[in-house]
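seq as requested:
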Amino acid sequence: MTNDEKTRDVLGLAPYGEAVRVVAQSVVDGAGAFLGRICLPAAEEFGLLLRDRVANWRRANAVLIAQKAERLLGNVPNSYAHPRLVYQILENGSLADDDTLQEMWAGLLVSSCSANGRDESNLTFIGILSGLTSSEVRLLNYACDSATKLLTPAGWLGAERQICTASALIEASQISDLHRLDRELDHLRSLGLLDAHTGFKMHAQDKIADVTPSTLGLQMFARCRGCRGSPEAFFGLGI
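struct tokens:
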């Protein structure tokens, strides 16, 4: 590779060859059609976005997110998303090539759909997800999946206290550096996705951590799974 080619390859994608540079036009057209279907005011613009304006690596990621969202949404009628949400989900999600993160972005795209396309409530979760690493997302998913969910007497969504071993968290997050693991749990807690008392118990005899999801974390988990209704119903809790 010449010096000029190295300069142009700022993402270091040259070794990936045609798999990154070329996305089948029929696949791109199909993704554009799906985005146009759920975002009528900007159908043409999103088609152009996938064809011309996004670098091929980001375009390939955006296509994968759209395909995942289409499978998740199915043929539900009257499903429209606000252009602001669709744009931000694709803009941020196209930077993710991790399958778990792409699934989360796809779920947010689906849960952004409503009958009139005016619901902007997912903006909060778009901002949060754009700042999470793939391992943090896996930690959040593990915490929310494994926690025992409940409703408080006043009807608020919550979870019972959950203590896990370091080995379980290493397996869930796919990272073995305990200091990084502790740091990422701290970050999730600082964002309000885990309970205020979560993290490793520094004075415990064994390496254990509290990974109780917060109400916000549970709501985000549900939205990133494509939940368009109440989180209580998503978790199978009665009111």
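Residues 134-234 form a domain with the Arc Repressor Mutant, subunit A fold (CATH 1.10.10).
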